[in-house]
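FW: tagging you since you asked about this chain on Friday. Here's the raw sequence from the shared folder, copied in full. Didn't touch anything.
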Amino acid sequence: MKSKKRDTILGLAALLCMSFALGACSSDDDSVPAVTPTETGTFTDADGTVYHWVRIDTLEWMVENYRGGTPWYEQSYVSNGFEEEFDVSDTETEDTLIAHNGNYLTWEDAKASAPKGWRLPTDEDYQNLEHALGMSAADAREEGWRDGAGKLMMQSGAGTMLGFILNGQLSSWSTSSVEKYHVGDYGCYWTATRDTTKTTSECAFIRVLCAGRNQVQRVACPTKLRWMSVKYVR
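HL: got it, structure written out here
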C-alpha cells in the first residue's frame, strides 16, 4: 500500500536547495548577442526516436530534451523507508507531454540512459557553453544566478537553436510526496558533476533557467527525490 507520510524535515531541506523558486531571478538584460551553431544535424536513438542536435563551441548538444527511459509516472521511489508510486490517472496526457517536452529522470538514470556515443554534460561543459554564449568565464564559475546566456539557451528554431525549455521538475517540496513544480516558469537540467563539498547528502550541480530572464542559475541540489530534464552531448 502506498504510504502518505509527511516529512517536515525533508520539506525544509527542499526549501533550502530550491531557492530558485522564490523569485531569485529578478534582473534582466535585453542585449543578446547573435550566436548560431557551426553545424546541425539529426540523430536516431535505439528506440527510433529522432533528435536534432547543434554544435556550439566544441560540443554537439541535443536540441530536444531526452524522451527515453521508463516514463516517470511508472517509476517508484523510496521515501521515509517506504516504497512509493506516482498517483497519475491520465497517462495518455503524460505520454504526450513526454513526447513533446522530454522525460523526467533521476540523476542516476540521467547518467546511465545516454544513447551510445552521447553523455550527460558535466558542470564544466555547461560553463563552457555559457561562456561561448557570452557569459564571462569568471561569472560562469560562480554559483547562483548569473546574468547572460539564458535567452540564448532557450532560443529554438533560430539563433542558437539549443531549445532549452521550462519544463519544471518533479520533487518533494513541502512533503515527502513527489509532484511536478514550476512547469512554464523554470527549466531544471541535471549535470553529471557531483558537488563534493556537500557532505550531509549527495548533491549534483544543476542548471536552472527562468521565464523571461537572461539568466542561468548554477546550483548544487540534492539528488534524492528529484527528477529533472536532460540534454545529452557528444
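FW: The longest helix spans residues 91-101.
HL: agreed, and The first strand starts at residue 39 and ends at 44.
FW: great, closing this out.
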